[in-house]
Amino acid sequence: MTVRRIAELLEARVHTGEDDLDLDVSAACGADLMSDVMAFVKEKVVLLTGLVNPQAIRTADLLDIRVVVFVRGKTPSRDMVEAARESGMILLSTNYSMFISCGRLYEAGLRAGGTREIR
Amino acid sequence: MTLTFTVPGGDFNQAGRASGEVKKVLARLGVDPGIIKRAAVAMYEAEINMVIHAGGGTAVAEISPERVVLTLEDTGPGIPDLDLAMREGYSTAPEWIRELGFGAGMGLPNMRRNSDELSIDSAPGRGTRVTIVLRLDGEGASVENRAAPAAAPAGTSPAEGVAP
Predict the structure, then answer these.
(1) Neighbours of B120 (CB within 10 A)
(2) Per-domain boundaries in chain A
(3) Which of A17, A30, B11, B133 has the lowest tally of Cβ within 10 angstroms?
(4) Contacts of A56 in chain B (CB under 8 A)
(5) Which of A71, A61, A69 is nearest to A98 (CA)?
(6) Are the C-beta atoms of A48 and A69 separated by less than 8 Å?
(7) CATH second-level architecture of A3-107?
């Protein structure tokens, strides 16, 4: 699924990466705790989070996550936008909740999740 | 090559900068991207732990053609029960840390999962030294392609001097 399609489905505002919206992602991860992101995230993933602080950008950068969506109407600070731009990251924000955002992407066909079985 | 960083304890927004720098250096050296990601995650978790629990410390990255050794050392309160701390979901982080996106109880398990060798030397009142080793001459690759960690923390040496 392209980031452009994700932005449409979530009626999202695009903060950075306007020229990269044809990037394709194959999995999604919805989490507010960054250690959970680091435990379960896959390649070519979009991260949906309600955590709006510099650690969200730093965690995504360390994991080579290229697309981050802030849910529940939260918008990134100017510093976060700048850090994301430097890292070549696409930042979106949506007014939908985490549940509805994940549901809309899942319903549209983005169904791959974490990297490993949870036991 | 040896890189040394001071990890400040007071500013949570700075936490992770050392890990980011090490990641950049490994990329410049042409290290396998899967190994770089594992090193970055393991070091980032250790760095965050130092900021949350110990008021900062020092981080040293020793990089040779054969391996990367990451040593993070603090003089904080130490880990009273290492076995408990290695369990997924166990956390002693305060609520305000969870509001910042950490304290999920995944830090030490994430370090173990992403390391080829992990040793933790800690005791109450004596601080903690975490040593993370990643081999550069083996199969390496991403964490997805590695075997799931055993119930007993394989590659984790019992901490010397841990209080009974």
Answers:
(1) 25
(2) 3-107
(3) B11
(4) 101
(5) A71
(6) yes
(7) 3-Layer(aba) Sandwich (3.40)
| Residues of chain B neighbouring A33 (CB-CB closer than 8 A) | 98, 101-104, 106
- What's the Cα-to-Cα distance from A12 to each of A9, A71, A90, A92, B108, rounded to whole Å? 8, 9, 12, 6, 35
For chain B, domains (ranges, CATH) are 2-157 (3.30.565.10)
List the single residue in B37, B40, B102 with the smallest CB-CB distance to A34. Answer: B102
**Chain B residue closest in CA terms to A34:** B101
Q: What is the pLDDT of residues A10-62, one digit of tens each?
A: 999 999 999 999 999 999 999 999 988 888 777 789 999 999 998 999 999 99
A 10 A CB-CB count for B129 gives 17
Tokens 């991260």 -> residue? A47
Q: Do A33 and B19 touch (CB under 8 A)?
A: no
Amino acid identity, position B65? P
Residue type, B75: T
B98 CB burial (10 A radius; 0-12, 13-18, 19+):
middle
Which of A55, A95, A43, A54 shows the shortest CA–CA distance to A73?
A95
**pLDDT score, position B163:** 34
Complex ipTM more than 0.90, yes or no: no
**C-alpha distances in Å from residue A94, one per residue of A8, A66, A97:** 10, 17, 8
Confidence (pTM) = 0.83
| pLDDT tens by residue, B20-44 | 999 999 999 999 999 999 999 999 9
Nearest CA in chain B to A43: B144
Chain B CB within 8 Å of residue A53 CB:
yes
